[in-house]
Amino acid sequence: MNLEKVIFGFFIVLAATLNFGFVYGEIANPEHHHQWEFFAALVVNIIATVLKFGDRTQVGAIHLATSLVAVLQLTTAALVWFFAAPGADGILSEHAVVSIVSLSAGALLANIVSVIILIVETTMQRR
Amino acid sequence: MNSHIFFIGLRRLRGPLILMVVIFATAIAGLVLIPGVDADGREWHMSFSQALYFMSYTATTIGFGEIPYEFTDPQRLWVTGMIFGSVIGWAYLVASLLALARDQGFRGAVTAARFARAVRGMREPFYLICGFGETGRLVGRALDRLGYRFTVIDIDRARIQELSIMNLAQDAPAMVADARFPDNLVAAGLQASECAGVLALTNNEQANLAVAMSVRLLNPHTPVLARAMSDDIIANMDSFDTDHVINPFARFGQYFALALHSPGSYRLISWLTGLPGTTLEQETAPPHGHWLVCGYGRFGCEVVDALREESMQVCVIDPEDVRISGAKTVKGIGTEAEPLIEAGVRDAVGIVAGTDDDITNLSIAVTARELNENLFTVVRQNLQANRALFEAFDADITVVSTEIAANECLTLIRTPRLTNFLAVVREKESAWAEQAIVRLQAALGQPSPEIWSVSISPAGAPALHRSIKYEGCKFSLGDLSRNPASRDDRLDMVALNLTRDGKSDAFPDDDSTLESGDQILYAGTSRARRAQWPLLRNLNVCYYVVSGVDPSGGWIWQQFRRKASGG
Fold first, then answer.
1. What digits encode the pLDDT tens for the residues B423-475?
2. Long-range CB contacts (< 8 A, 24+ apart) of B14-19?
3. pTM of the predicted model, to two decimals?
4. Is the ipTM here above 0.85?
5. Mutate to test the interface with B, among A50, A64, A74 (most CBs of B within 10 A)
6. By the number of CB atoms within 10 A of the CB, which of A6, A47, B241, B427 ranks highest?
């Protein structure tokens, strides 16, 4: 067992699960999408991206690409959050929530691809 | 290659980057969680974007203060901890970046990438010089002066650094690398279409052989010039068609034999093939008679062969016991009087000091001159650094093998056609050559001339070729040396050779009419060469030179002129 592999797998899967947790729920309901979960998903995704730096294999390149896509999607969602003025009660408009959640759903797709690559890579190694 | 470096860098910075992300995330989370108090005393929570902004300027020690409201004590406690954490993280990141920039391996990768990019950026023909020792430097400097570009690989870092402080007109990409490995040759541009030739001039014959072999296999159409001195390496190089094997000692042997046989031809050849900036030497005809040769190594061998070919009496002085049939040998070094006297220095006409040590050679020559002041001295200089000593001694012939090799490279590069002419010169009598020297000197002066060839073909001289072949203009050879600016003036150049249908004619007559397919070899000043250029490429200049009428102008103007002259 290799500690580096454990950490690597842990962050990739955690990035995907956190992302899923945030996206899960009614798309237009602000109550179903918590901003802390979003924050955690973004941070873990950035860490996962940095972990993938420097692998020069073909699989490594795809890994990095999927993570970059996920971070890009989540950052865009964060910007939408930042610019969407909350109403008088401090709650975001339905429109803003829908775009934040759909952008995060895109990131979720990229994270799922990343997890699939991780699984495929693992099964290909016969050790 | 460049992205490759970028990823190496990122890989090394993974640790500090992740640390920074974690510190930022923790700090932001804390700032958002800990309640503050706004201006009106109500409880207030920082938003994520505000926290990110605050941490960005705090971690980088810029510090804009407590925005938007003054912090409460719990907030300040948290921020104090985070300041220490983030500044440490930041310092760690910067330190890692600096360590990366100083890392030998990383710097090697950066230099290699920069070199490869510089080579790829070469858009004009260039030469690849392997080995930048004395010969390589001479060749490089001369190539630069002639306007050619080149790339360099050498195994010695000091030599590459020397290149970077050489005063060159154009940038020459260079890398510390072993020329024996084909990858390095490819990085230096071996497979580029602009690569005009490869010069293997390292001081390791095996390496030169490896270079010649790599070039043959990886880019068969590129000419390769390789230096080699031992017979088996030369034979090996010849076996796979190395274009030119440069053996400076053998070349000197040939020249020496020529100088004995036909001093004029020798003088003419060394003038024509001189490095840019050399001038015509005084006449130095080696006398015929009894010769002493000190040092019977590779150099001595060639000299003895040359002397005996011209049926001179030879006596060899060497510390080793050598036996040469038909020649007397004396054991000794030659720096002392006894062996020299034993070898017959008092009755000798000349001495060759040809050991591989400069000080020994000078010592031999000085001692010999004291014993017989009329001796003709030939001294071998091994190191360029000892130049001043040899200049002060002023031997009749100073042999510098690096210069001979450099000269030969340059002759082959500049004017491959000159070699045919030189072969003609070698066959001629000394008087013929002296006459040629007088003629060339009158036209061109003392400095070594520039040599170039003009071929009357669509590629070599499009305008001239067209006017001769399709428009029926009659050009005599003399017309080509008319000044395109004013046709009654002559340019400073002399036609050395005219090749037509495989037959060549040395110093052709000015009246001979030119035909399509002729090859003319010129010697002249570089100004003359530049001045001649428009005549070869511009149809209007052609008409002017042949007829004296300037037909310049567009179609309308020509119509006018036709009307006016037609009545």
1. 888 888 888 888 888 888 888 888 888 888 888 888 888 888 888 888 777 88
2. B14/A50, B14/A51, B14/A53, B14/A54, B15/B96, B16/B89, B16/B92, B16/B93, B16/B96, B17/A50, B17/A53, B17/B93, B18/A47, B18/A50, B18/A51, B19/B89, B19/B92, B19/B93
3. 0.69
4. no
5. A50
6. A47
